[in-house]
Amino acid sequence: MKFLFTGGGTGGHLYPALAIARELARDPDNELLYVGIRGRAEERILGGDRRDPRIPLVFAMSAGFPGLSPRLLPGFLLTLGFGVLQAAGHLLRFRPDLVFATGGYASAPAVFAAWGLRRLGLLKTRILIQEQNAQPGLMNRQAAKLADLVALTYPASVEHLPTRKVQLVGYPVRRDLLQRPSREVACREFGLDAARPVLLVFGGSQGARGVNRALYAILPDLLRQGIQIIHGYGTASGRGYDAGEEHAAAVGKLEKDPQLAPLLKDLYRPRDYMHDIRVAYAAATLVVARAGAGAIFELVRCGLPTILIPKMGLPADHQVANARAVQEAGAVEVVLERPRPVAG
């Protein structure tokens, strides 16, 4: 069979698609294709030196919905329309039996193109939507109307989607998560002491500005207490914020302190992006993370003590809903952010 996967922009939409795609790729009779957008998580993880020959990557233009702004809407529609035409070309050449979409604006061109070609009688593919979050995003709420089936992670999602199309299947955790190294090996890879606790702090593929700044604020105290830290500060860049630049400034300030500088070198392991986060999971004794569905279910599957800090103010506050659902099951602790006004 032929399977076309789409969805991305961030790791949260990419990783569930990859978990399914890599399982299907184990059967040599299956053919796979991934449709994403340039410059985002899918190109970084599936492109370049990390390219997976079993899952070829092609691109279609897309953009996030800007609302009904008369200034931004025309450009959005033009970009999306061109992306749908690009995706239609990929679909007609590949002719998949199933389109598997995980949401985010990266999936819009392929889903809309597949539905349109099917309506025109040019393609017979079926469309499956996978929803990771307790509160479905805008793209998946719209795509669900065009889909043959919507696969849910959380039971609460059903009230936001066409009930005749939904099925509760859970979150697709990747197989290789079960093949983590021993804690001793993982700590050795990070240059840490396996006999002492390790705190893992990360905020997803883009990082988390609020979580990073909270960590920088308490980092001197943690270091003085001898706490070992693995920190994924993220790759976010643009709109007045660059995670790498802020990280360099925060750490540079601490390095000027003659007491903290050697502690930083011995105890603190920062990374912009962890391509194999399994090693960090294996080393960690406590995790502080955002509440994206992928991170939650990987951490639960690993059985790691976890404190979730959901990002507030996202569409439908889906990270808060994700975190509350697993907290009610007794799997994690949740700390909510409290916005604080800043002068200027």
Ordered list of secondary-structure elements with their pairings:
Blueprint: E1 2-6, H1 11-24, E2 31-36, H2 41-46, E3 57-59, H3 73-94, E4 98-101, H4 108-119, E5 126-131, H5 138-143, E6 149-152, E7 166-168, H6 183-190, E8 198-202, H7 209-224, E9 228-232, E10 237-238, E11 241-242, H8 243-255, H9 260-267, E12 268-271, H10 277-283, E13 286-289, H11 293-302, E14 306-308, H12 318-328, E15 333-334
Parallel strand pairs: 1-2, 1-4, 2-3, 4-5, 5-6, 6-7, 8-9, 8-13, 9-12, 13-14, 14-15
Antiparallel strand pairs: 10-11
What do you see in this structure?
There is one protein chain. This protein has a seven-stranded parallel β-sheet with strand order 3-2-1-4-5-6-7, with helices on both faces. Helix 1 links the parallel strand 1 and strand 2. It has two domains: 2-172, Glycogen Phosphorylase B (Rossmann fold, 3-Layer(aba) Sandwich); 177-334, 3-Layer(aba) Sandwich (Rossmann fold). The longest helix is centred in the N-terminal third of the chain and has 22 residues, at 73-94. It has helices at 11-24, 41-46, 73-94, 108-119, 138-143, 183-190, 209-224, 243-255, 260-267, 277-283, 293-302, 318-328; strands at residues 2-6, 31-36, 57-59, 98-101, 126-131, 149-152, 166-168, 198-202, 228-232, 237-238, 241-242, 268-271, 286-289, 306-308, 333-334. With 344 residues, it is of the alpha/beta class. The protein contains twelve helices and 15 strands. Helix 3 crosses helix 4 (108-119) and helix 7 runs parallel beside helix 8 (243-255).
